[in-house]
Amino acid sequence: MADNYQFFMKSNVDSYIGQWVAVCDQEIVSHGTDVKKVFAEAKKKCPTKRPLITRVPDKATMIFILK
What we know:
The structure is a single chain. By secondary structure, the protein is α+β, with helices and mostly antiparallel strands. The protein has one domain (about 1-55). Helices cover about 30% and strands about 20% of the residues. The protein is built from 2 helices and 3 strands. A 3-stranded antiparallel β-sheet has the order 2-1-3. The longest helix has 11 residues, at about 35-45. It is globular, with a radius of gyration of 12 Å. The two termini are about 25 Å apart. The mean pLDDT is about 90.
């Protein structure tokens, strides 16, 4: 799953802002506004894998990492 996360973090996901995306084998295999549908489609495309499911935040969203 770490490879999928790294792929997601390095990808240009501007076209998916506000949507859920599913990443499997370092590829976006599904996207949309309904997380259940995105997960179901990802499981059909990658039945033996555990896809990374995440929401692409709005551009105004800020993420802070505290150490």
